[in-house]
């Protein structure tokens, strides 16, 4: 029976692991080893020459990591997956593999802060330039394409304003010019959105977030065509070396099993909290792509299964009021990161997006009153009670 014919909820638990190969162990064993012994010197020679299959050294491959890589590849409908020490290790390995000096990158108008930092560094050191685009129409993307454009890099939903980009539309334009499209799918996870099925080429995750789901590790993943990821494995992954530890891969295999259940609950809770927040007099603007009043609702219907667990909102007040709201909370946690069982709340202008210059921040819609909420798995009534009492305490 082909594994591909199974449902997502089954693949997330079984793909890439055969208990018969591991003494019947139900749980994937943790191969906490740096290296592998050869029976003979000649066997070592054959392994290095690629004439014999087998493990050599854990930067080049590890059986626990391999299960995770096969699983994420199947979940994202890609051919091969690679695991990294962090989301940024994945982002940098992919972007460095795709570019050379003097190339050009087209990016969505909002980017994760450290991805923005990496692009700045690539520009300073290698003259790899970039342009930002809202990517609302094909024309808008087309007019930025140059002979040296090496890739289009997209985040959707955009952090923290939750604007959406039509991935199928972007992939169609890019492929007219043979340019690969890379998507950071961290905010949705493959349960909600699968960019490769929409025509995109490479998917990246900060597995620290929804894929891990328990706030206990930092890791990254990339999925794409076998040829391309084989080359990444042998170059920017092997030689720069940002590989995942076997233990973190083991935790991710464990976390992944409940991804569909968690994402449904995150989305259910977020829908409830959204309805409550939008009716509160202290909330001025609210951004959650699941609602018909959201400008990109039609894109959400087209490419996302659910709205996901992230809501951003502006309070009617000052920066100090926004900070006071966080301080007024009783059990909800003030923290960056997202996608954990615990509800996390943060102030983008002074935390995740503090490095972005004020003018760019304003253009991106990140005001001093904006708050980002990663709705957790607690009872939504308790989440709302805490938020409501904190909002009500604002003068
Ligand atoms: C957190 C995050 C990253 C970076 O991932 P790390 O695991 O922290 O290195 C990249 N993109 C997005 C959208 C993120 O939220």
TrEMBL record:
Q: Keyword Cell membrane, does the record have it? A: no
Provide the top EC class: lyase
Q: Pfam families from the xrefs? A: Cys_Met_Meta_PP (PF01053)
Q: Which reaction does it catalyse?
A: L-homocysteine + H2O = 2-oxobutanoate + hydrogen sulfide + NH4(+) + H(+); L-methionine + H2O = methanethiol + 2-oxobutanoate + NH4(+)
EC number, UniProt record: 4.4.1.11, 4.4.1.2
GO molecular function, a single term: methionine gamma-lyase activity
Source organism, top-level taxon: Bacteria
Keyword Lyase in record: yes
PTM N6-(pyridoxal phosphate)lysine: list the residues: 209
A single Gene Ontology CC annotation of this entry is: cytoplasm
Q: Which UniProt keywords apply?
A: Lyase, Pyridoxal phosphate
Which BP terms from GO are recorded? Answer: methionine biosynthetic process; transsulfuration
Instruction: Name the cofactor(s).
Output: pyridoxal 5'-phosphate
Describe the family membership recorded for this protein in Swiss-Prot or TrEMBL: Belongs to the trans-sulfuration enzymes family. L-methionine gamma-lyase subfamily.
What is the protein named?
Answer: L-methionine gamma-lyase
């Amino acid at each position: 029976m082909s594994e591909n014919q199974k449902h997502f909820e089954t693949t997330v638990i079984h793909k890439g692991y055969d208990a018969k190969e591991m003494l019947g162990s139900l749980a994937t064993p943790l191969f906490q080893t740096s290296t592998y012994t050869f029976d003979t010197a000649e066997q070592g020679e054959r392994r290095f020459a690629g004439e014999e299959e087998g493990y050599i050294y854990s930067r080049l491959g590890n059986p626990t990591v391999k299960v995770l890589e096969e699983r994420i590849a199947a979940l994202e409908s890609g051919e091969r997956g690679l695991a990294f020490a962090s989301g940024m290790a994945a982002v940098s390995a992919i972007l460095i593999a795709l570019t050379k000096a003097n190339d050009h990158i087209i990016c969505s108008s909002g980017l994760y802060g450290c991805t923005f930092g990496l692009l700045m560094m690539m520009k300073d050191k290698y003259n790899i330039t970039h342009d930002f685009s809202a990517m609302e129409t094909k024309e808008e993307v087309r007019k930025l394409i140059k002979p040296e454009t090496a890739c289009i890099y997209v985040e959707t939903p955009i952090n923290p304003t939750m604007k959406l980009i039509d991935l199928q539309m972007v992939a169609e334009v890019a492929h007219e010019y043979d340019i690969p499209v890379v998507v950071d799918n961290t905010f949705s996870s493959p349960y909600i959105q699968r960019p490769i099925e929409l025509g995109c080429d490479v998917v990246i995750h900060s597995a620290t977030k929804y894929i891990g789901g328990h706030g206990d590790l930092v890791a990254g993943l990339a999925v794409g065509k076998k040829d391309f990821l084989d080359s990444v494995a042998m170059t920017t992954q092997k030689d720069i070396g940002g590989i995942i530890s076997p233990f973190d891969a083991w935790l991710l295999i464990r976390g992944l099993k409940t991804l569909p259940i968690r994402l449904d609950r995150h989305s259910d809770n977020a829908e409830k909290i959204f309805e409550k927040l939008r009716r509160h007099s202290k909330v001025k603007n609210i951004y959650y792509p699941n609602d018909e009043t959201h400008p990109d609702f039609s894109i959400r219907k087209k490419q996302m299964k659910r709205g996901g667990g992230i809501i951003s909102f502006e309070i009617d007040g000052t920066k100090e009021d926004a900070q006071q709201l966080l301080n007024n909370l009783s059990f909800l946690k003030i923290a960056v990161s997202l996608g954990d069982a615990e509800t996390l709340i943060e102030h983008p202008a002074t935390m995740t997006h503090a490095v972005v210059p004020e003018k760019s921040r304003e253009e991106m819609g990140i005001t001093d009153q904006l708050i980002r909420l990663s709705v957790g798995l607690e009872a939504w009534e308790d989440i709302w009670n805490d938020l409501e009492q904190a909002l009500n305490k604002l003068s």
